[in-house]
Amino acid sequence: MAAHRPGPLKQQNKAHKGGRHRGRGSAQRDGKGRLALKTLSKKVRKELSRVDQRHRASQLRKQKKEAVLAEKRQLGGKDGPPHQVLVVPLHSRISLPEAMQLLQDRDTGTVHLNELGNTQSFMLLCPRLKHRWFFTSARPGDLHTVLDMAKVADTILFLLDPLEGWDSTGDYCLSCLFAQGLPTYTLAVQGISGLPLKKQIDARKKLSKAVEKRFPHDKFLLLDTQQEAGMLLRQLANQKQQHLAFRDRRAYLFAHAVDFVPSEENNLVGTLKISGYVRGQTVNVNRLLHIVGHGDFQMKQIDAPGDPFPLNPRRIKPQKDPDMVMEICATDTVDDMEEGLKVLMRADPDRQESLQAEVIPDPMEGEQTWPTEEELSEAKDFLKESSKVVKKVPKGTSSYQAEWILDGGSQSGGEGDEYEYDDMEHEDFMEEESQDESSEEEEEEYETMTVGESVHDDLYDEKVDEEAEAKMLEKYKQERLEEMFPDEVDTPRDVAARIRFQKYRGLKSFRTSPWDPKENLPQDYARIFQFQNFTNTRKSIFKEIEEKEVEGAEVGWYVTLHVSEVPVSVVECFRQGAPLIAFSLLPHEQKMSVLNMVVRRDPGNTEPVKAKEELIFHCGFRRFRASPLFSQHTAADKHKLQRFLTADMALVVTVYAPITFPPASVLLFKQKSNGMHSLIATGHLMSVDPDRMVIKRVVLSGHPFKIFTKMAVVRYMFFNREDVLWFKPVELRTKWGRRGHIKEPLGTHGHMKCSFDGKLKSQDTVLMNLYKRVFPKWTYDPYVPEPVPWVKSESSSIVPQEGME
C-alpha cells in the first residue's frame, strides 16, 4: 500500500524558535561541533556547572569576609599598628582636656602619656578588648595640623556642642576636611548632661537636625561620664574603616619620637631618626621619603627596635618569690631596644632612587642651521608669485580701478539711498560739554554746626589697608569687565598691532583647527619630565604594588628611619609642637612635570582670583605654593584660558609641580595680608600631561562706518594700513552672528573694506579672534608658612588671634 504524501496546498506552520531561552544542549546540537570565537582566544573560559558556580561564589564571599576581618583585627591588634584617633573639638565651648581625661580610662587598660609640644596625646592599651589606641588632638583653628593629622588618622572623633553643634571655625574646618577626604569618623557630644532634664530632649532634637546638614546618616554618642567613654571606645574599635586612596598605595608613618644627629661638616644639616609604626604599605629603604611640609629626602637605613607599647607586656617571675609578677613598662622597653638594636635594611647605592627633580637641559640639543641666501631668495620669489591675482576686467581699466572689482563679479554696493549715507552721524564722536548753570540759581542758606567724629570709626579706619582696598576694587572691576566683554582687548595706538600681537594666530575653528603641541615650547619645558603614556605607567605601578612583594619593613612594625641630609629646621618644628608625618614616594614622584587639576570654586569665598596669582596647594600628601593657570574643562585638544576663577563652572588648574599619581584630593588656599589662609577651591588631580594646550584668546573689536548690502567699511580695529594687511587672512565675525573677511585697506588710518555673509546692522560690532598658547610660571615653592590660627569673634566672624600677625 503506498504511503500518503502531502500535496502542494499543505499548510506549513512555523517551527518553534527557542531563541535566547534555549538550553545548553540545543545550542551544542545547533553548533554541530563548531567552536565559538571566545574559545579560540588564549584564555580558555571553562564553563562551570551550577553546583560549581555556587561553590565558587561562596568561596569568594568567604575570602572577602576573611579579608575584612583580618584587616579589622590587624588595626589596633598586637600585630598591627595602634588605632590612631584624632580628636577635633568643633566649638570653642568644648573642653578638650576634660574629654581627653575621660578617654584615659585606667580601668579599661594601661595609659601612657606623651606630650608632643602643645599637642596632647596618649597611648591606651586594652588587653581585655585586644585593642590599643593612640589618641591625638588638634584645634580646628590650627589648619595645617588638622589637615596633616587627618591624612594619617584611622578615625576622627568630632566633639560637638550640645546647643550649636559647631561654630564658624568648626564649620570652616569641616569644609576643608570634607574636601581633602574624610577617613572613618565618629560624632560625640560633650556637656549635654549639664543641661536641665527638660531641655535635654529638645537639645538632642535640635542637634540632630543641625547634624543632618553635614552628616545625614550618622548618629552622635555622649561623652560626659566614664561609662559613656567606654561605650565610645567600643564603637571606635568595631567601626568599619573607610579608606583614602592616596595613602593606601603608599607607606606612611607618624613620628612618635625624633632624634637629630648633625653632620660633621655642617651643623645645620644632619641625619634625622624618625621612630613610628609603619602603615599603608611596606617601607623600602631604597625609595624616597617625603616629609610633609619640608620636601623629599633619601633614607640610609631602617632599624627595628622593640615595640615600646606592646599590647601584652612581658611578665617576669622572680626566682625568689614565684608568686610576684612584674610587668615591663614602656621605659624599660625603650632601654632594652636601645641595647639590642636590629638593622633591617641598608640603602643600596645602585638601587636607591635619585633626588633629581629636574632635567639639566642641553643648550646644543635640537640646534638648527641658518638658511642660506639662495633659500631665502627662493622663498621671497615664491611669495611674490603666490601674491599675484589674475582678474577679468573690462578693457581700458586702470590698476587702481581693478583693485575695486571683486572676485566672482559680486556687486559691491546697494542702490540710491544706501550710497547717500550720512557720514557726519558716524564721525561725530566728540562729547558735548555741558555748561554749569547752577551758579545762576540762588544758593540756599544752611546752618553749620560742629559734630564730633565717632571713636569707633577711627578705630575701624586704623585697621583698613587703603592700598589693599584699592587693589581689590581694581580686581572686582576687571572681573566685571571680563564677564561683560569676554577676552576683548583694546588695540594699542602707540604700538603697531602686528608687533603687539605677533605671537598670536588666527584659527578657522577653535575646535577642529590643528595645533602642534610640540611647537614653540618655553625653556622651562626642557627641565621637566614627561611620560610616553601616563595612564599605562600609572596602571603598571599600581599593579606592581598589589602583586609584587616588596622587601622592607612591613605594616605594623615599629621602626626607626634614618633620613639623610635633613635641615635642622625640621626638628625645630617638631619640638615646637607640629606633627611630623612621612610618606614613601612611588617611582618618579620626585620629578617635576605639569600637573592638571579639576577644581570648583568654594561657595564661601567670593573674592576675585586672577590667573597667575600665588596660591597654596594641598595636593594629596604634598603642600606647596605655585602660580597656576585656569582653563576650561572640555574634551577637546585645545582649552581656552580663563582669566579669573569663575564660580559657576569647574575649571582645570595647571601648574609646575612634582609628579603625583591620582587619585588625590586638591585644596587651593590664598594667603591674606593678615597671615590667614582662605579656602578658594576644591577638587581632584586629573592628570600629569605637559601636552595639554591652554590657549589664550584675544578679541579685537571694530565698528562699521559705512554699510552696503554685504560690504562694510570698518574702523577702530586697527590704526594703520600695515596692520590691516598683516591680519588680512584672519576671519572676522560679529556679535550678531555674521562671518566675513577683510578685502583691502582704505587709506592710512586703519579703515578697511570687509565683506560678510549677510547685511550688517548699524549697532553690530565686528570682532577678530586671535589665539596664543600660554604656559604656567615656574614659581613652585615646597615651603609654605604656617597660617595664623583662626578664632571666633563675638560677631560670629573669623578673625586672627592677637599677637599672631
From TrEMBL:
Tell me the domain of life. Answer: Eukaryota
Q: Where is the composition biased (Basic residues)?
A: 13-24
Keywords (A to Z) from UniProt: Nucleus, Ribosome biogenesis
**Residues that span the membrane, as ranges:** none
Instruction: Set out the biological process GO terms recorded for this chain's protein.
Output: endonucleolytic cleavage of tricistronic rRNA transcript (SSU-rRNA, 5.8S rRNA, LSU-rRNA); maturation of SSU-rRNA from tricistronic rRNA transcript (SSU-rRNA, 5.8S rRNA, LSU-rRNA)
Q: Which GO terms describe its cellular component?
A: nucleolus; preribosome, small subunit precursor
Residue ranges annotated as compositionally biased, kind Basic and acidic residues, are 46-55
- One Pfam family in the UniProt entry: RIBIOP_C
Checking PROSITE patterns in the record gives: G_BMS1
Q: Which GO terms describe its molecular function?
A: GTP binding; GTPase activity; U3 snoRNA binding
Q: Which InterPro entries match?
A: AARP2CN, Bms1/Tsr1, BMS1_TSR1_C, G_Bms1/Tsr1_dom
* Region feature Disordered, mapped onto this chain: 1-67, 428-450
Task: Indicate the segments forming the Bms1-type G domain, all copies.
Answer: 81-242
- Which intervals carry biased composition (Acidic residues)? 428-447
User: Where can this protein be found?
Assistant: Nucleus, Nucleolus
Q: Which family does it belong to?
A: Belongs to the TRAFAC class translation factor GTPase superfamily. Bms1-like GTPase family. TSR1 subfamily.
The protein's job, in short, is: Required during maturation of the 40S ribosomal subunit in the nucleolus.
Q: What is this protein called?
A: Pre-rRNA-processing protein TSR1 homolog
